[in-house]
Amino acid sequence: MEIGFVKLLRNTELSAVLHGLVPVVWFLTSLPAFVVTIQQRPGRQRWFLLPFNVAGPIICFLQVGRLKAGLDWLWAFTSIIYIFHATSGLYLEQWTIPDTASRSGDFSAERLYASVKAWNNPRRLPLRVSTPQRLFTRRQRAYFTFRKLGLICIHWGIYLATDVGTLFLLRPAPREFAPPGYFHFALDRAALLRTAYSFQWAWLTYFILTVANAIVAIFFVSILQLDEPDEWPSLWGNLLQVHSIRSFWGVFWQNIGSPSQLTYGRFFTRNLLGLKSKVTAEKSFLAFFVFMMSGTIHAATNWMTRNTAPVDDIYGDMVFLLLNFAGGLLEVLVQKLVYTRLKMNKGKENSGTAYSVVRRAFGVFWVFVFFYTIVPPWQFPYIEADFRRRFVPFRMNVQLQRPQLP
């Protein structure tokens, strides 16, 4: 029996799986630490538990080299996002479990349920603090499941169609994605490739997060039945409302990590900088702070996973995000300048439907030009590396089959 167990441990595949689970297990230690901490009243006892809340995610971040390429980046990024989320909720926002979730202060199942949901709520969605009351019938849960499965199938179909269609129609070669400059306004093939791939990063992020969110929602709503369908809204806003860089990030883009970063930003503006709430200076600082923190998190993750990265570019994500902040700031300045020059009052500003349509159309065009300009220098090296990875085996086979001349 002992010999068989030793052989099992020596199994190469099993050892690799166990080796890769180490950082994940370290990250999951944050769950009991969070549950215990949120039961404590804000104060000294909570601060004593701070090391236990951040130690697991920090070790996970440092150990992601055990994971395969892609998974290492995901867990490293998740670890940092979680540290912001947990420390913000427990120590800045000072979350507590409402008395309605317990009976006479006992550590009941309802308190545990509410604590776990708070641990997994970086978006700051409204939480039900009591265990599910089966507000939804089996038929409604089944409908939710089929709707999510349909969403997954549709997105997979669109992904395959766009990927294969782009390759078939454009027939891009790796050499065409050599790092370009920011500005290229000639009507040539390079402009066509820029147009086709300027939004690929956004589409891939949308696709991956939407499918992942649907799978996790099915698991918690339909299988475990711990959540209700209405507790899993879409990650994204209305794309039709995007007519500026600010609305792209503030209205449409997912807000998984930004709520906790905004809490940290408000702590600095109101306690250290002495800025008043919702004034222009605070809004500008908060926008800069979120973009800067997000860029720093991306840079730290890229540095930790540099050995498996397809491109040696640690600061590319940070530069891209800061350029987006600069684009949003430029929008504010131009908007104020135009309104001042034309002396538009509030009545005239909203009186004409034609003006609103033209303004939105110009805004959409501006968003396209902006990403057309700044995305290729950031993303083309990754696209080139991806194409070379895809085409290398094919080229090797062609060379092996080529007859040798006497």
Automatic annotation (TrEMBL):
<feature type="transmembrane region" description="Helical">
    <location>
        <begin position="73"/>
        <end position="92"/>
    </location>
</feature>
<protein>
    <recommendedName>
        <fullName>Wax synthase domain-containing protein</fullName>
    </recommendedName>
</protein>
<keyword id="KW-1133">Transmembrane helix</keyword>
<dbReference type="InterPro" id="IPR032805">
    <property type="entry name" value="Wax_synthase_dom"/>
</dbReference>
<feature type="transmembrane region" description="Helical">
    <location>
        <begin position="149"/>
        <end position="170"/>
    </location>
</feature>
<feature type="transmembrane region" description="Helical">
    <location>
        <begin position="360"/>
        <end position="380"/>
    </location>
</feature>
<keyword id="KW-0472">Membrane</keyword>
<dbReference type="GO" id="GO:0016020">
    <property type="term" value="C:membrane"/>
</dbReference>
<feature type="transmembrane region" description="Helical">
    <location>
        <begin position="201"/>
        <end position="224"/>
    </location>
</feature>
<feature type="transmembrane region" description="Helical">
    <location>
        <begin position="48"/>
        <end position="67"/>
    </location>
</feature>
<feature type="transmembrane region" description="Helical">
    <location>
        <begin position="16"/>
        <end position="36"/>
    </location>
</feature>
<feature type="transmembrane region" description="Helical">
    <location>
        <begin position="285"/>
        <end position="304"/>
    </location>
</feature>
<feature type="domain" description="Wax synthase">
    <location>
        <begin position="232"/>
        <end position="311"/>
    </location>
</feature>
<keyword id="KW-0812">Transmembrane</keyword>
<feature type="transmembrane region" description="Helical">
    <location>
        <begin position="319"/>
        <end position="339"/>
    </location>
</feature>
<dbReference type="Pfam" id="PF13813">
    <property type="entry name" value="MBOAT_2"/>
</dbReference>
